[in-house]
Amino acid sequence: MTALVPATGATAAAPRAVAADDPVPGHEGMPDDGFENAPEGEQDDLAGSGTGSAPSATADAQAVVPGRPGDFTLETGTGLTGLVDKLDAALPKQGLTELMTQANRDAGWNSTCGDAAIYGPDLTAAPRVCWKDDDATSSEWIPQAITGVSDAQEDEDWGTSDSEPIAVAGYDDYNPDRSNYASGRSNCVQDSASDACNEKGIRVSFFNQATKKYRHVLLAWPFLNSKDHISFDALHASEGTCTPESGVTDACRAQNGIHAGGMVWYGNYLYVADTANGMRVFDLRRIMDLSPDNDPAVHDPTPDGLVSNVVDKKRVGRQNNVWYAYGYRYVMPQVATLKFTTAKNGGSTSKNQCYATGRPKASYISLDRTGAPHMVLGEYCNTNNGGSSNGRVGTYPMTALTAAVEGAVGTTAKADLAYGLPDTGTFGGEKLWHKIQGVTRYDGKWYFHRSNAYDNGRLMQATPGTVDGTTQLVANPKILESSFGPEDLYLAHGRGDGLAPKLWSLSEHAPSECGVCKRELYSYDMGEVISGFGS
Question: Sheet of 392-397: strands edge to edge?
Fold first, then answer.
């Protein structure tokens, strides 16, 4: 892989003459981007009727799902290069190295994070990182996915920086008074509306390990508005354009944002899981900066002759000749789409059910660098609510994914391996091998993070083996207690800096969810993990 060359900050071009007035209210003119909507409550242990009842644990074991790599095939979707180029010309640009030096939010580190009650006794969580108070308790932003510079580069060296960035994705889970634009709707820009009203999609928080500071970046979808001007919106397919005549139907209702249950940073690209569709891809050389002077009170001029506003938290994109981003300084537009080619199984997935065949869910992703780099993708499933599978995992050569991102529409990236999850053991009165929130593969062994509602989750291990003449993932009977609300996994391999490998993860639950819940970013020594499993 070619070594990374982080983009440098762009100098604003001389203002051009402003085009005709751009009186585009809200999201008028935004086309549907063709993404399917995932059900609400995805990757939620308590969604649906199954919450860990005893009958699920005693039900007849399902046969382990056979591996079908063909079900995991991804295809390059609608081209976005032209739209992103237009944004590039319209807005100032910043590189990640510069962004890391401007990280503006203080994080706690180890002992400053207070008690460690969310962790079990089997593994030592160190270091621990805790978020600034408003992020630690937010009802709006829920942390999910994690990746970092070890995924991005073999040498773990981001430019000349010693920041060793870690990136965490969070999704917007709270939109009070958001509507489908039907009769009597609430308008999110009204004074009476909460800042949280809009569906803001996904933001990525880049953490600087050297300074212990982090910065949020809003992810965005580029489009041409009804005046044929370049603009952007949050990551959801359509805002909703129902009318009193049509009523609220699936064809016009406002869509949820994506869940971003997994994320991989590889080279210059950031891959973000989109559960129902595949992956959305972003380019770290294309981070737009709406406040280059770092003074939010000043509406900075932009290269297209307009101005930007980073104070107003209720608007996004180009509106009335002003650029907004829900109050965020940095915006990273989507540059490519990778969609599953396989048709969905006919069964319902409304309560996190999964199936043995058909399109998988992109619930979580990670990177394996122990050989030729591969992405690992897997499904979150709740077998208490039905379905025919505990979940499946598949792997893709990163060379194939990079080629698809940079290729023409219709370019495919094929998985070279797939397995069904094991179906052995019980935990808490139900089956053990479901409710998986994260996976990584390291030196041929597979590690899975299993959630447990508002209690300690479990870290599990499996190894490929032959059972009845078929290669399957064979579960290690040993399981290790993990944090409350465990999520995605990221392996910092340490080869570039000579440090011991670390297995990073994060907890999602705010203290309001349960008495001892906390949101932290944490790592386990990989040697301790391996010895904990006996190999």
Answer: 364-368, 374-378, 392-397, 417-420
- Consecutive H or E run containing 399: helix 398-406
| Phi, psi angle pair for 250, to nearest 5° | -60, -30
Cross-strand partners of 452: 454
**Cβ burial, residue 69 (10 Å; 0-12/13-18/19+):** middle
8 pLDDT band, cuts 50/70/90, is: very low
Q: What does DSSP assign to residue 312?
A: -
pTM equals: 0.93
3-state per-residue secondary structure call for 129-195: EECCHHHHHCCCEEEEEEEEHHHHCCCCCCCCCCCCCEEEEEEECCCCCCCCCCCCCCCCCCCCCCC
Pairing state of beta strands 263-266 and 230-233? unpaired
Q: Which helix (H) or strand (E) holds 288?
A: strand 287-289
Please give the helix or strand (H or E) that residue 55 lies within, else none.
helix 55-58
Dist. CA 530–CA 502, nearest whole Å: 11
Enter the tokens of residue 450.
């299993």
Lowest mean pLDDT among 124-128, 162-166, 355-359, 422-426: 162-166
Calculate the CA 58 to chain-centre distance. 34
Lowest mean pLDDT, pick from 64-68, 103-107, 250-254 = 250-254
Q: Is 409 exposed, middle or buried (0-12, 13-18, 19+ CB in 10 A)?
A: exposed
**What's the confidence (pLDDT) of residue 55?**
40
Nearest to 433 by CA among 454, 467, 459: 459
Q: Is the pLDDT of residue 377 over 50?
A: yes
d(CA 422, CA 433): 6
Q: What percent of the chain has pLDDT over 70?
A: 89
What's the pLDDT at 240?
76
Three-state DSSP at 462 gives strand
For 496, counting Cβ atoms within 10 Å of its Cβ (0-12 exposed, 13-18 middle, 19+ buried), the class is middle
A 10 A CB-CB count for 369 gives 18
DSSP 121: S
Q: Hunting for tokens 């063909």 — which residue is that?
A: 70
Cα separation of 421 and 64, whole Å?
Answer: 7
What three-state secondary structure class fits 420? strand
Q: Which H/E stretch holds residue 519?
A: none
- Per-residue burial over 339-359, b if 16 or more Cβ lie within 10 Å, else e, is bbbeeebeeebebbbbbbbbb
